[in-house]
Structures are given as C-alpha cells and as structure tokens.
Specification:
The chain is α/β, with parallel strands linked by helices. The chain is built from 13 helices and 24 strands. The chain has two domains: 189 residues, FAD/NAD(P)-binding domain (3-Layer(bba) Sandwich); 197 residues, FAD/NAD(P)-binding domain. A hairpin with a 5-residue loop joins strand 22 and strand 23. It binds flavin-adenine dinucleotide (FAD). The site of flavin-adenine dinucleotide has 33 residues, from helix 1, strand 2, helix 2, strand 5 and helix 9.
Length: 476
C-alpha cells in the first residue's frame, strides 16, 4: 500500500479538532499528552490562525498595556504529536464524517475522520441593527484590538489640529454592551484615552467623553448586584457616562441612535453586545434547541444524535445539570470542556465508558482600568484593588507557556513606570519609488492572489475585513 502523502487532497485522521481557541487547543494539548502514553491515534487540529488567542487580554492590547504579540501563542509550539493545519473549515458533513477546508494556499481539501471535536467559537452578533456591522468596531480578534488602538490615536491626532467646537465627535467614544466584557473594554479604553491625551497640548482630559451603553438595568449582570453597582459607581466617578436601559437602534452618518431618542455623534462605536455560534455550526445536520443557535450536546459532550461528533466552547450548548440550564459561553468553561472531551474521545477510541462533564465556575473577574477591578471568587464579591490584583495574578498564571507569562509581566511592570504608547502601528505598504500608500495587500502574485480570494470568500469575520478597509487609505 502507498504511504499517505502528508498534504494530499484527501486524507484521513482518527480525530479531527476544528478551532484552536480555548476549547480546541485544550482538547489538542490533552490528546497530545495521551498520545505520549496509551493512546494510538492520528490527531489533527485545523484552525484559521496559527496562534491561540488569549481573549481576556484583548482590552489590554487595545489600551496599549501589553504588546499584541504577547496575547497570542504559536499553536505549533504548543503541540508535539498532534498535527496542525492552518486553514478554514468550509463545510462539515457529519453523516459522511468528512470536513472540507481551505488551506493557506487557497486549495480546497477534504479530511475524513473517525471522531470530530467542534470548537470553532463564536462571531459577533449585530442583530441586524442598522449601520453597526459596517461602522462599529468589534473586540474579538487581535486585529480588532490593534485597529481600535490605531483609530483612537488617529482621532487624538486629528482632534489636536481642530478648534474645540469642531472636534467633539472625535473625542466622544461609545462602548455598547455593559456585560463583563464591554465594561472591561470601556474601563481600559477610557484610562488609555485619558492618559494618552496628556501628550496633546490642546486636548484636556475633560474634553474626552466616554459613554457605556447597556440595554438592561445594570452593568456586569454576570456578577452579584452589588458588584455591578460598584462598576457603575466607579466608572461614573472617573467621568464616564453610563446609559442603562438604553437600546441602540442604529449607527449611521456618525450618529449612534438610542430608542429613547438620545444620540451620540461619534466616530468610535465598539460593539460588545452579543455573540452567536460560528456559521460553520449552522450547516451541520443536527438537532437544535429552541432560541439557542448552539449545538446541543449530551453530558458526555457528544452532539445529540451522534456518537463520534463532539462539541465544546461557545458553539456548544452543554447541559448544566446543577443549574438546570446550559453552560455559558466563557473561556473558563471552554478550557474545562476541551480537556474533558479529549479524555472522552480517547476513552471512546479505547472502548472504555465515557465520563459525564461537570463544572461549576470558581468565579469571574474583570479589570476596570488601572488598579480597579470587580468580580466574584468562590462566591465572595470582590471589588477595587484586590479584584484588579486577583485578575492580573489569575490571568498571568493561566496564560500558557512561561515565555508569554514573562513577557506580559514585563509589559505590566513597564506600564506602571511609563506612559502608554501613542504610536499608530499601521499595516501599510508604501510604493518603493513614489512613497504612495498601496494599502494592505499582500506582496507577491500581483495584486489579489488565489489564497486571498479563497480565504476572503470563506471568512465569516466580516467586521475585521471591513475595518481593515477603513484603515487602508486609497493610493493617490
Ligand atoms: C474581548 C473578550 C474578552 C473575554 N474575556 C473573558 C474572560 O475574562 N473570561 C472568560 O471566561 N471568557 C472571556 N471571554 C470569552 C471567551 O473568549 C470565549 O468564551 C472563548 O474564547 C470560547 O472558546 P472557544 O474555544 O469556543 O472559541 P475561541 O476561543 O473563539 O476559538 C475558536 C477558534 O476557532 C477558529 N475557527 C473559527 N471558525 C473556524 C473555521 N471555520 N475553521 C477553522 N478554524 C475556525 C478561530 O479562529 C479560533 O481560533 C472573552 C471574550 C472576548 C471577545
């Protein structure tokens, strides 16, 4: 029999993992360890990026507290025995046990499998609100965080050269979504803009307007009520406006509209008000539950109706027997689910009984900017400096790989000593002779090459591509 070529068009793997985020990478790492010991199987991880993004640090990247590279980890260095393919899975035929993906060359390939672990995460949900998808920033990728920082610095530069009467919209910032993530983004970003504005002679801290908009009646509803109230009081005391029970109805011509008639003229709207499962999930032939787009699983993390299709993370609806509901889409759940599914898949391959998944959250923490945080640990509400310190310590310890921990620790130490960076790191390419800005096109192949076309066509993260178009100036 001919040996299987490593990159032939049709391949087979015993275990296929889709998505290298919190759920997928933890499944892959646990299987990697099991492969060293008793498991005999071929395991393949396919993910769109060749790095694992630590999302809790994204607000800090946007706020220039840590280097963007330090919030990501190269997947290839995290795995020894699991094969990694950088690619986008386009279609999964669960009945035929076959995944079709586009690799980085834009070539379409198929992989057949015995077991598939789905962990493609979620995408931003705009709920069809007018103008948001096109005009708002999101905070889901490392590119989003860099673009937000570049954009904020660019606004400060523009505002510096305008009279106060003409620049208020440039210095007004709106974050929509007062859940834990949105509150964190608003707090960190407000701190950053205030500190950065000190370098602009004509801009006073009082010129900066930051509005956090939430449609419910309180902030950070994932936390106890008094912690949500602390978040509100703390952010307000620093000068932030908090609009509660405020529903955004549109964002057009630089005007963010609220249902009650209020408006904000702003060039910066950061949308942090909802996610939905990856579009890959919608195409999978499986049972659904009412008003939940996620893939429902049983307690062993098998997708209902299948014994070889497994799902974890944001795209899975995993029953929480203790609460009588489904588990929330958080990183801490995805990590545990990822490790557990790896063990169950290994047990299935070895013909052993499966183990049910149980997990109760130990707590939740968020940073609200320098020296202030909020959360709940082991059921105890925590606010102020202790919460901020606990947040930093916890995330430092849970970051994978020592080199990343050290780099983040150095970034944080330097931030305590020096003001934030106010440079715009534009991904631009200048014409070698004329100096004209050629935008962000890849070099080689003469313009849009095959890979760019194929991947652009399949990428579901439309906000990112639109935002890069916003930062790329046309060539004169
Ligand atoms: C700004 C921010 C801050 C957050 N902070 C916290 C926090 O402090 N605590 C907490 O518990 N949770 C936090 N979360 C939530 C947490 O990030 C998610 O719950 C978690 O990432 C879900 O893990 P996952 O594995 O399901 O998806 P992800 O971690 O998103 O990973 C999905 C992976 O799949 C890849 N992928 C997607 N589609 C495809 C495809 N078709 N083909 C190939 N690859 C694909 C993606 O590129 C990605 O690598 C935060 C989220 C954000 C956005």
């Amino acid at each position: 029999m001919e040996p299987e070529l490593p990159n032939s068009d049709n391949e087979h793997t015993d275990v296929l993992i889709i998505g290298g985020g919190f759920g997928g990478i933890n499944a892959a790492r646990r299987l990697d360890r099991l492969l060293r010991r008793r498991l005999k199987a071929k395991v393949t991880l396919i993910s769109r990026t060749n790095f694992y993004l630590f999302t809790p640090l994204l607000a800090e990247v946007a706020a220039a507290l840590i280097d963007a590279l330090h919030a990501v980890n190269p997947i290839r260095r995290m795995l020894k025995r699991v094969r990694f393919i950088q690619g986008t899975v386009l279609k999964l035929d669960a009945k035929a046990r076959e995944a079709t993906y586009a690799n980085e060359n834009g070539d379409e390939r198929t992989l057949t499998y015995e077991h598939c672990i789905l962990a493609p995460g979620s995408v931003t949900a705009f709920f069809g609100i007018k103008g948001l998808e096109k005009g708002a920033f999101t905070m889901k990728t490392v590119g989003d965080a860099i673009q937000v920082r570049n954009h904020v610095v660019s606004l400060l530069e523009r505002a510096e050269s305008l009279p106060p009467s003409k620049r208020q919209h440039l210095l007004s910032f709106a974050v929509v979504g007062g859940g834990l993530n949105g509150t964190e983004v608003a707090g960190e970003l407000f701190d950053f803009v205030l500190r950065a504005s000190d370098d602009y002679a004509s801009i006073q801290r009082g010129d900066i307007r930051m509005v956090l908009i939430e449609m419910r009646e309180s902030l950070a509803q994932e936390l106890p009520e008094q912690v949500g109230s602390y978040c509100k009081d703390n952010l307000q005391s620093r000068g932030m406006e908090i609009w509660l029970s405020a529903r955004v109805t549109g964002y057009t011509n630089g005007l963010l509209e609220i249902r009650d008639g209020r408006e904000i003229a702003t060039e910066t709207v950061i949308w942090s008000a909802g996610v939905r499962p990856s579009p890959l999930i919608a195409g999978i032939d499986a049972e659904r539950i009412e008003q939940d787009d996620r893939l429902p699983t049983n307690e062993f993390l098998q997708v209902r109706g299948y014994d070889n299709l497994w799902a974890v993370g944001d795209s899975a609806a995993i029953p929480d027997a203790k609460e009588g509901t489904y588990m929330p889409p958080t990183a801490q759940h995805a990590v545990r689910q990822g490790r557990h599914v790896a063990v169950n898949v290994a047990r299935a391959i070895m013909g052993k009984p499966l183990e049910p998944f149980h997990y109760s959250s130990l707590g939740m923490l968020a940073t609200l900017g320098r020296y202030r945080g909020a959360g709940r640990v082991f059921g105890i509400p925590l606010t102020g400096f202790p919460a901020w310190f606990a947040w930093r310590t916890y995330y430092l310890l849970t970051l994978p790989r020592w080199d990343r921990r050290l780099r983040v620790m150095i970034d944080w130490t330097l931030d305590l000593l020096f003001p934030p960076e106010i440079v715009q790191l534009k991904v631009e390419r200048l014409h070698p002779e004329t100096g004209a800005d050629l935008g962000v096109e890849r070099r080689g192949g003469g313009g849009e090459n095959q890979r760019t076309q194929a991947v652009n066509a399949t990428r579901d993260s439309a906000p990112s591509s639109e935002q890069s178009a916003r930062t790329a100036k046309p060539a004169p």
